[in-house]
Design a protein that fits this description.
Blueprint lengths: L3 E6 L3 H10 L5 E7 L3 H11 L3 E3 L2 H7 L4 E4 L6 H10 L3 E5 L6 H14 L3 E4 L6 H11 L6 E11 L1 H6 L8 H17 L3 E9 L2 H4 L7 E8 L4 E10 L8 E8 L2 E6 L7 E2 L4 E2 L7 E3 L2 E3 L1 H15 L7 H20 L3 E2 L8
Parallel strand pairs: 1-2, 1-4, 2-3, 4-5, 5-6, 7-10
Antiparallel strand pairs: 7-11, 8-9, 8-17, 9-10, 11-12, 13-14, 15-16
Helix pairs in contact: 1-10, 4-5, 5-11, 8-11
Length: 345
């Protein structure tokens, strides 16, 4: 079997994680990578055996014969890389959100349709068993038609102040609620049509980070269902969850609740009490397991099996459209409408 030749754009936390999964996949050859610093990317590239290293993704696309590209740049910098990859004839795996601009998202959807290439957005929570089981139960009619949803996903303040040097270009909703919005649109099987939200800039702004401390919003969908999305980036660092995560769906004949903040493990040490994460991306002996590696491997499956990815560009548009409207509403104080989808679905 010929190996798929893959390049990675962005070798930070997510790009390195993607690389570690693909490096153990016999169907893949990691050919090249780009980052803003050759020096900083050297250790991870050495670990993964990536010899071809670039500062400019356009140069990598021009010089390397690639089948697919993994885009793991900060949230607000996905669009240009994704479009360049599609225009160069490469399949694309892009970190969530697909883009932070609804018009850009629509352009990506249309370009994917025009090229026939595969694009998967890494809303990897679809591969978490409880969320996938929820989708199956809803499809089987266990709770009737879903009518209302609630989702909370929040992080301690160390995430925007220490983990993410680019947090000022994003928000807790773009970084966290995107997962919940993707899941809700998947479960509802409907497009978002309007949003009304509130947000506060105070604590992080005082630290020189121009983004929201917290956002709460309600989104209405094309089938009449609605959902509330709540997110916060300023929990105290003593909080045991990373993140605190809770979801609920109420249907005409039942209810489903998913509370996964603890992930089945509690740990107490002399320093703190914590709920360590193990379900999303965890190293078991010499392999990475969980929803994240399953998502990455599924992208390779989609290319080799010539099937649609399980999170398509259209799904990426749905989440971006809702998030774009939420942020517009937070700024305007009004209910903000969402434009019609870029293609028939």
């Amino acid at each position: 079997m010929n190996q798929l030749r893959v390049g990675i754009v962005g070798m930070g936390i997510m790009g390195s994680s993607v690389g570690r999964v693909l490096a153990r996949d016999a169907r893949v050859q990691l050919v090249a990578a780009t980052s803003l610093s050759l020096e900083k990317m050297a250790p991870i590239c050495d670990e993964l055996g990536i010899a071809r290293r670039y500062l400019d993704y356009a140069e990598m696309f021009a010089r390397e014969s690639l089948d697919a590209v993994c885009v793991a740049t900060p949230d607000q910098h996905h669009y240009a890389v994704v479009m360049a990859a599609l225009n160069a004839g490469r399949h694309v795996l892009v970190e969530k959100p697909m883009t932070t601009d609804v018009n850009e998202a629509a352009e990506i959807v249309r370009r994917v349709r025009e090229t026939g290439l595969k694009l998967q957005v890494s809303y990897n929570h679809r591969w978490l068993a409880p969320y996938n089981a929820t989708w199956k139960m809803i499809r089987e009619g266990k709770i009737g038609q879903p009518l209302m949803g609630y989702a909370r996903k929040s992080n301690p303040i160390l995430v925007p102040t220490e983990m993410l040097p680019w947090s000022g270009g994003s928000s807790p909703a773009w970084f966290l609620s995107g997962h919940d919005i993707d899941l809700m649109t998947w479960w509802f099987d409907a497009d978002p049509v309007e949003a009304h939200g509130y947000g506060i800039k105070k604590v992080l702004a005082a630290r020189g980070i121009d983004t929201y401390d917290m956002i709460q919003a309600q989104v209405k969908f094309s089938n009449g269902a609605f959902a509330t999305f709540e997110t916060c980036w300023i929990y105290p660092n003593s909080h045991p969850a990373l993140p605190d995560s809770y979801m609920e769906v109420v249907g005409e004949a039942g209810q489903i609740v998913m509370d996964r903040k603890a992930e089945a493990i509690e740990m107490a040490s002399a320093e703190r009490f914590a709920w360590p994460r193990s379900l999303l991306n965890f190293q078991v002996f010499d392999k990475w397991v969980g929803a994240f590696p399953s998502c990455v491997e599924s992208f390779i499956d989609a290319i080799l099996e010539d099937r649609p990815p399980y999170v398509t560009a259209y799904d990426g548009w749905r989440a971006t459209a809702a998030l774009d409207a939420i942020h517009r509403s937070v700024a305007s104080g009004q209910v903000e409408k969402i434009a019609a989808p870029p293609i028939a679905h």
